[in-house]
Design brief:
The structure holds two protein chains of two kinds. By secondary structure, chain A is of the alpha/beta class. Chain A has helices spanning about 5-20, 25-45, 65-75, 85-95, 110-115, 130-160, 180-205, 205-215, 215-220, 225-255, 265-290, 290-300, 305-310, 320-325, 330-345, 350-375, and strands spanning about 50-60, 80-85, 100-105, 120-125. Chain B has a domain at about 5-10 and about 15-55 and about 70-85 and about 155-250: P-loop containing nucleotide triphosphate hydrolases (Rossmann fold). Helix content of chain B is about 40%, strand content about 25%. Chain B has helices at about 45-50, 70-80, 95-105, 110-120, 140-150, 170-185, 195-200, 220-225, 230-250, and strands at about 5-15, 15-30, 30-35, 60-65, 65, 80, 155-160, 185-190, 205-210, 210-215. The chains are: A alpha/beta, B alpha/beta.
Chain lengths: ~375, ~250
């Protein structure tokens, strides 16, 4: 009596396929929503900092000071949007947020520079967004340092000492994403995040809907086993999810221009494992929730942890260990590593085995818990 | 063994409330057992315990020789059940519903085809195979539900108010089917509020506030209660029980 009967499982699959086909609006949402979300968030989720608005208070107008401002604007990190004539005005603009940094060039800048004396310039930075502040600060430091070396070189040449040899230089080479574009990093993550939340909702409703409509009562007086029912219910959705995943993958690579460096076959194969895991998580929600509304609420409650704990937004390495464990309860955590690994680094299964095993183990765990929770009873 | 259902002291409590109180009843094989009682008297709870949908709080019972406490899966394989509320898939057609349950009960291809044809014929659903179950009227829905419950040739059929809200013609057809099944040796346990239906049962049990008040053939009960018909028996039993409980409550 305890064995898995393929015939019963297959009956559930056929029934679900018919029901999915009849419910066109839900199917359309499942297929189109990920696409729309990717278009929307693909543009919104951008952590690249550029065009920081800068006010300039140039108290020593000259070719030299204008050149310095030019150096700032030239990087495209800064954008000179205002010219002010006093601290009060500059502070007001920082308060209002019309600019994020203020460049102050003192009245003695040109004179000191001409004499070859050390001159000071000041940069006021709005530090409320540390990401912007850090970018502004490090870039300003580099610009000024670069400018200083150039000046020094000129001075030395004037004295007839020839080329300036720096005693120490750093050669960097950025691998995987040489231009350090955040979109290359974010699109794979977004694909995972969107797929997780859309597919989870598909099955989160499935058992509850049968409870609400009363069809569960007829089903549980049959000899069907919970495993047959659950696997039968997720099977058609793996197909729906995979189709949707391929669409989103196409848009990510073709529209947003984020290439897949590794094997597409491996990516698709592992996405099946990921879809099964999220669909099982949906089934688990379905065994806990009593109504479709509750199921919806629970599915939504999982979205935030998925964004914050999975490593989608913030690197997991800098989280406390306990929080990292909690992140292990989100399927996206494993899939993000896989997505980024295959997309960006082009690695194979041998580099991702930990996440593959982790996700597989998590899916089995959630299936076991769901089966344990599912009772063929009405109470 | 000539007993289809046998239970002793079957009790179901939901928290403080006792839905079924020490119910003892026996349903002989091949008979139609009518289960009567006012709304909320514990009929559905009893039926659900016998089907394995609910676990009894205390007591014991066997259905077709299997223990209701521990062997509910064995019971489920051998019984047909129809709940009060239509519980098939409204977004599937008549045929798809039958196909689904045929698969769930593991009917082979040939048997499936034969049973489907037989049951569609029996239920008078010929010509409606491609119609969505949700678009059927009440009487048709009930007959479809009965067909699904009979697909796997159960030895025992448990029907919870199968004819509630169904027109007289459909009701008659339904009961003709039930009597036909009983002739084939299938045991039927059925709850109803219609006394004309109860009159045609082989056995009757009256349940009220979770207690079985009377049991016997319809003739016996009318005689014993010195009533004119089953309806009077029903009303008299309910009146006596309420008076008894009121007296008990007053004494307390």
């Amino acid at each position: 009596m305890k064995r898995f009967v393929w015939e019963r499982y297959w009956s559930v699959v056929k029934k679900e396929v018919i029901q999915i086909k009849r419910d066109r609006p839900s199917l359309a949402i499942a297929l189109v929503m990920p696409l729309m979300l990717l278009f929307l968030f693909g543009y919104a989720v951008n952590t690249d900092v550029s065009d920081i608005k800068m006010a300039v208070w140039n108290q020593s107008p000259s070719a030299a000071s204008r050149e310095l401002v030019e150096q700032f604007v030239h990087t495209e990190i800064f954008q000179a949007t205002a010219s002010v004539s006093g601290y009060r005005e500059l502070e007001a603009m920082l308060d209002e947020g019309t600019v994020d940094v203020g460049l102050v060039i003192g009245p003695d800048y040109t004179r000191k520079k001409d004499r070859g004396e050390p001159a000071h310039i000041q940069l006021l930075i709005n530090g409320s967004d540390p990401n912007i502040a850090r970018t502004a600060m490090s870039n300003a430091q580099l610009i000024v340092q670069h400018q200083a070396i150039a000046l020094q070189e000129k001075n030395l040449q004037k004295q007839g000492l020839g080329e300036l040899q720096l005693p120490l230089e750093l050669d960097t080479r950025v691998l995987f994403n040489p231009n350090m574009e955040s979109i290359v990093f974010n699109i794979p993550g977004l694909i995972g995040l969107i797929m997780q939340n859309v597919t989870m909702i598909l099955t989160a409703f499935s058992l509850v809907r049968e409870k609400e409509r009363g069809t569960m009562e007829q089903l549980v007086v049959t000899p069907i086993r919970p495993l047959e029912l659950m696997l039968g219910k997720i099977t058609p959705y793996v197909g729906v999810g995979l189709f949707s995943f391929c669409l989103v993958l196409l848009v990510g690579t073709a529209w947003f221009g984020v290439p897949v460096k590794g094997s597409i076959g491996l990516l698709v194969a592992l996405s099946v494992l990921f879809l099964v895991t999220t669909l099982l998580l949906g089934i688990f929600i379905s065994t806990v929730a009593k109504t479709q509304l509750q199921a919806m609420q629970m599915a939504f409650a999982l979205i935030l942890p998925s964004v914050l704990l999975s490593g989608f937004m913030f690197p997991r390495d800098s989280m406390p260990v306990v929080i990292q464990w909690l992140g292990g309860l989100v399927p996206l955590t494993y899939f993000l590593e896989i997505l980024r690994g295959i997309f960006l680094k082009g690695v194979g299964a041998e580099a991702l085995w930990k996440d593959i095993v982790g996700m597989g183990a998590f899916s089995l765990l959630i299936l076991a818990v769901a089966i344990g929770r599912f009772r063929k009873k009405i109470e | 063994m000539n007993v289809a259902i046998e239970c002793q002291q079957l009790t179901k409590r939901f928290g403080e409330r006792t839905a079924v109180n020490q119910l003892t009843l026996t349903v002989p094989k091949g008979s139609i057992y009518g289960f009567l009682g006012p709304n909320g008297s514990g009929k559905s709870t009893t039926i659900r315990m016998l089907c394995g949908l609910m676990t009894p709080t205390t007591g014991s019972g066997t259905v077709l020789g299997y223990d209701v406490m521990t062997q509910s899966e064995e019971i489920k394989q051998r019984i047909g059940y129809m709940s009060q509320k239509f519980s098939l898939y409204e977004d599937l057609t008549v045929e798809e519903n039958l196909d689904f349950y045929a698969g769930v009960y593991q009917l082979g291809a040939a048997e499936r085809k034969q049973r489907k044809a037989e049951l569609i014929e029996m239920a008078g659903l010929t010509g409606r195979e491609k119609q969505l179950a949700g678009s059927l009227s009440g009487g048709w829905k009930q007959r479809l539900a009965l067909s699904c419950a009979l697909l796997h040739k159960p030895e025992l059929l448990i029907l919870d108010e199968p004819t509630a809200g169904v027109d007289p013609v459909s009701r008659r057809i339904f009961w003709d089917v039930i009597h036909e099944l009983a002739k084939q040796g299938i045991t039927v346990l059925v709850t109803t509020h219609y006394m004309d239906e109860a009159q045609t049962c082989d056995w009757i049990g009256f349940i009220f506030f979770g207690n079985l008040l009377a049991e016997g053939t319809p003739g016996e009960l009318i005689e014993r209660m010195e009533a004119n018909n089953l309806e009077d028996v029903f009303i008299e039993l309910v009146r006596r029980e309420e008076a008894r409980q009121a007296a008990e409550g007053g004494a307390r």
